[in-house]
Amino acid sequence: MNKDVDISVNFSGIGLANPVLTASGTSGYADELADFMDVNSLGGFITKSITLKPRKGNATPRIVETDSGMLNAIGWANIGLDAFVEEKLPVLEKLSCAVFVNIAGETIDEYVAVAQRLAAEKAIAGFELNVSCPNVEKGGISFGTDPAQVTEITSAVKKVSGEKILMVKLAPAVTDISVIARAAVEAGANALSLINTFTAMVVDVETRRPVLANKTGGLSGPAIKPIAVYLVNKVYNEVAKGSGIPVLGLGGIRTASDAIEFIIAGASAVAVGTANFIEPGCAIKIIEGIKKYCACKEIANIKELVGSLEVS
Amino acid sequence: MSEKCSAANKGVFSAAVRANKQLGQRFYQLGLEFSGAGAEVFANFKPGQFVELDVSGTALPPAEAIPEDLVDVSGRKVLLRRPFSFCDVTAKKNKTFAEILYCVVGPATLRMTTLTAGDSVSIIGPLGNGFWVPESKKRALLVVGGMGAGPLEHLAKVFTADYPDMEVIAFAGAKTVEELPFEARLDEISQQLGFSLGEFAKYGIESLVATDDGSAGFAGLVTDCLSEWLGKSDLAGENMIIYGCGPEQMLAQVAEIAKDKKIDCQVSMERRMACGIRVCQSCAVECRVAGSNETVYKLCCEDGPVFESREVVF
Ligand SMILES: Cc1cc2nc3c(=O)[nH]c(=O)nc-3n(C[C@H](O)[C@H](O)[C@H](O)COP(=O)(O)OP(=O)(O)OC[C@H]3O[C@@H](n4cnc5c(N)ncnc54)[C@H](O)[C@@H]3O)c2cc1C
Ligand SMILES: Cc1cc2nc3c(=O)[nH]c(=O)nc-3n(C[C@H](O)[C@H](O)[C@H](O)COP(=O)(O)O)c2cc1C
Ligand code: FES
Predict the structure, then answer these.
(1) B105 part of contact set with chain A, CB < 8 Å
(2) Which domain-ending residue is among B253, B270, B285?
(3) Catalytic (active site) residue A133
(4) Which of B65, B94, B127 is the last residue of a domain?
(5) Which residue has the higher pLDDT, A144 or B104?
């Protein structure tokens, strides 16, 4: 068995010690997870969506469990750019893993303002543009379903991002995700992340009302995993592979084999979301599991695994 | 306990099930045992704090044991952990024993009923801020609504042990006598005095029972029972404190009464929680900002679950 497995990843020029990150909105601003894992052992960390101004978020209930999944409608509740810079950046500066800041907004100017303010911050490796959030009235998913808007927002943010790599997070519920992916790449995206949640609804049959105060929410968790794997594979084949752009795969990952499925399908790295709620240290177990898998299969470098799906 | 206390050393622990006793049609008490690091951490568990329990791998009871109203939901796979308080915590040498009083309402609590002695369960905790006891209080009123009994039973124990001079009275309400989550409901002597619940009587604490349908004790809401009782009380509001745990409507009433009588009041809030560890932002509680008309969302799992009632926007 080959013990010297290299699972480090060159993610569009950013060196990740391993391919496992934690997903936006499921791991706070990093210090929250410190009780459960050594965040520095991650390949990378992605913050909760940051908006220009603080946002209170939606009324409750904000979540409801479904079969093998959950809906959330948090509504970008976050402390806003200024408080983020003041309170959270100092924490993130101490991390040795790659830090990505997830940016959201209702207008293109808001995205640009956040990116501009953070572009010179050393603690940050890159941005993840959330153009795919289903839980706010304006912005979010409406940007992410229209290729023209994706082009516009990606190029506008790219202009002010300086050295930071720009990753665009794609919405899954579109007619052809490759069209959106291509729009992002052509406008200057350095990486793609997919998938965000699916807009969904749960009805209380006693009251005939939606359970969530926001009426709809985003479906995440194991229930969406097979769709996410499919979409990652599609984007890898149709857009990413040809343009040499890495894909961050996510959606329902809980175990090392879940993560490996995404990698085989074409993801260069993966992110753990909902599973952090159930087993806050599971990302570390996934890293160990990936190493073990590679060792068993005599894969010397994880690169060999990326997009290695056999279809013939 | 005089200071607001938050969770230190929280983590994922495994606990051994010691017992799982059915107390009533829908009520059970789960006995847990922590050893090693868990024993140390949970020895300091404060009343009102909570844990997140993973029962996703626990089996369903046999079909005939599933209440009719839960048949449809019972098949749903449990994904997320569930929040629970402890109703009793006892630290012995190398072990800490904790009890969860729970009501069967859905797929997770249904699965919990099949846990048996020797099983092991995964628990995240201790989480959140528990109740605290401000200086200068002479009398504490514990107001329980249905399943809110757990943390207040635990608080009763702490009062008896650490605040021997505090006069403590419990008020417990439910729709019917069947829905009172207590094992020992009534006895003859207590019937003469009002009513007494064994769970509080064992700490020397008097209790008053209210049922909406009058099937036991005061006929009406527990908050009306409390109001009536306070009407006859001679102690100034500032010397008293109310602790409430139960349905939100009840807590809102308790908060009103406390405000009216100028009594300090702490309430334990419930929210649907995806994580319990402040990473998901699902558990927002709308709170007033002192000195302004604005409100903010605080996190039930992090800033609560116990809040000062005057702070909460019900
Ligand atoms: C801090 C805290 C402490 C708790 N302590 C206890 C305890 O000691 N004993 C106990 O029996 N229960 C306690 N609960 C409630 C307990 O977590 C729920 O009853 C449990 O999650 C139900 O899971 P289930 O899968 O059986 O039912 P589900 O299907 O999840 O819920 C059944 C129904 O109950 C309601 N519900 C569930 N969770 C909540 C919630 N958090 N707030 C409001 N309504 C809800 C919903 O209407 C739902 O349809 C506590 C909750 C919190 C937040
Ligand atoms: C409670 C919750 C909050 C989330 N918040 C954000 C967010 O702020 N920004 C974002 O881009 N994605 C957010 N997401 C989406 C996740 O990052 C991820 O794309 C999605 O949940 C799928 O992965 P999973 O199934 O592993 O959770 C959130 C997801 C959940 C469950
Ligand atoms: S339950 Fe997740 S933040 Fe409170």
Answers:
(1) no
(2) B253
(3) yes
(4) B127
(5) B104
CA B173/CA B221 separation, integer angstroms: 7
Q: Which helix (H) or strand (E) holds A62?
A: none
Q: How many CB atoms lie within 10 A of CB B38?
A: 22
Residue B31: which CATH number? 2.40.30.10
In single-letter form, the type of residue at position B175 comes to K
A12-59 residue pLDDT tens: 999 999 999 999 999 999 989 989 999 999 999 999 999 999 999 999
pTM of structure = 0.95
Residue B309 has pLDDT above 70, yes or no: yes
Phi, psi for A22 (deg, rounded to 5)? -105, 145
Q: Which residues line ligand 2 (CB under 6 A)?
A: A 23-26, 48-49, 72, 74, 76, 102, 130, 133, 169, 196-197, 220-221, 224, 250-253, 272-275; B 274, 280
Q: How many CB pairs under 8 A join A and B?
A: 94
Which structure tokens are listed for A264? 């085989």
Decide if B76 and A278 are in contact by the 8 Å CB cutoff.
Answer: no
Task: Mark yes or no for CB contact B77/A68 under 8 Å.
Answer: yes
Convert the pLDDT of each residue in B100-122 to its tens digit: 999 999 999 999 999 999 999 99
**In the block, residue with structure tokens 């009407």:** B231
- For residue B109, being part of any structural domain is answered with yes
- For residue A169, which atom of ligand 2 is closest to its CA? 11
Answer whether A188 touches B (CB < 8 Å): no
Do the domain assignments include residue B210?
A: yes
pLDDT at A132 over 70: yes
CATH code at position B230: 3.40.50.80
